[in-house]
Amino acid sequence: MRIIAGTFRSRALDAPPGLATRPTSDRLRETVFNVLAPRIGGASFLDLYAGSGAVGIEAMSRGAAQVAFVERAPAALKVLRSNLARLGVTEGFRIHAGSVGSFLRKPHAGAAGFDVLFLDPPYDAAEEYATALGLLSGAAAGLLAVGAVVIAEHRRKERLAERYGELERTRLLEQGDAALSFYAVTVATQPE
């Protein structure tokens, strides 16, 4: 795995050993960041199920002001910290060691919302998509800045819902066996 563009361009990243963590491919990361290009500079980025941190580090490399990583697997956390240290990154990020569900259920009073949220749970944990997207459209909606985009990476053959509360899918990109569902907050117009 390599950083695709930005200040850390072409720098190598490690991935946790074994099959428990499935890093987002370089090609798929490039697709994500081509779509997000106008939003990344100065953005606040949340990398849920961060694994090696490849997606969040790519965001940092491309100019995100703040990145928060959420990961619970000890092996992945070790690799994430190692990747950041090897790149010399000492600020502009936070690591939350614990489950995504716990992080999203925590009160985040006074926390500034995230502009971009990326989630990539293990493909075999399909219930994690509904849980995370449901919380982001409900109890954890305060984590979303105005105009935020939420991106879920999933198996191409696994269809996510068009809507989770006020989060509505605005775009679906498919590449190989993977797909990216882009969600944004939509508010139904009330009749007057």
Commentary on this structure:
This protein is α/β, with parallel strands linked by helices and 192 residues long. The chain has one domain: Vaccinia Virus protein VP39 (Rossmann fold, 3-Layer(aba) Sandwich). Helices cover 27% and strands 28% of the residues. It is built from five helices and eight strands, in the order H-E-H-E-H-E-H-E-H-E-E-E-E. The mean pLDDT is 89.
Describe the secondary-structure layout:
Layout (H helix, E strand, L loop, with lengths): L25 H15 L3 E5 L5 H8 L4 E6 L2 H13 L6 E5 L2 H6 L8 E6 L7 H10 L7 E12 L7 E2 L2 E9 L2 E8 L7
Parallel strand pairs: 1-2, 1-4, 2-3, 4-5
Antiparallel strand pairs: 5-8, 6-7, 7-8
Summarize this, please?
It contains 5 helices and 8 strands; from the N terminus they run αβαβαβαβαββββ. The chain is α/β, with parallel strands linked by helices.
